[in-house]
Design goal:
By secondary structure, the protein is mainly alpha-helical. Helix 2 packs across helix 3. The protein starts with a helix and ends in a 12-residue tail after the last helix. Pfam families: Rrf2 (PF02082).
Length: 141
């Protein structure tokens, strides 16, 4: 299974946010930390804000931070929010046209594997994957 690039960036944004704790950060700081295009980070931050994983405050002292404690935000929840398609093969997609779907023995193992993948991610919170600010070259304030 492969996560899309925006999910990858979303997880990295959340790691960055958790590493700073209550301290606000900006999109430009995330761009500098990861070398990801600003437009991508903006798209991801917008999705994370809409999903209530981050909060955004406008203005002079504005910025982004976690919407709640890092220990309360599940990695699986972020992945589910960011991923648009967990249908691994045609028979798991809407509009399935596979000729053998009615007798196929692959559907159940793939569905089980997908469930196991998400269950593993559900065992971790953003707090579990956070780094220390120093690992980003930052000082805690």
């Amino acid at each position: 299974m492969r996560l899309n690039d925006t999910t990858d960036v979303a997880l990295r944004v959340m790691i960055y946010a958790a590493s700073l704790g209550a301290q606000r950060f900006t999109i430009d700081q995330v761009v500098a930390a990861y070398g990801v295009p600003r437009s991508t980070v903006m798209k991801v931050v917008n999705a994370l804000t809409q999903g209530q994983f981050l909060t955004a405050q406008r203005g002079r002292s504005g910025g982004l931070n976690l919407a709640r404690g890092a220990e309360e935000i599940g990695v699986g929840a972020i992945v589910r929010h960011m991923e648009t398609d967990f249908a691994l093969v045609e028979c798991l997609r809407a509009g399935n046209g596979c000729a053998i779907t009615g007798s196929c023995r692959l559907i159940a193992p793939l569905a089980e594997a997908r469930a196991a993948f998400l269950a593993a991610l559900d065992r971790y919170s953003v707090a579990d994957i956070a780094l220390a600010p120093a690992e980003f070259g930052l000082t805690a304030s």
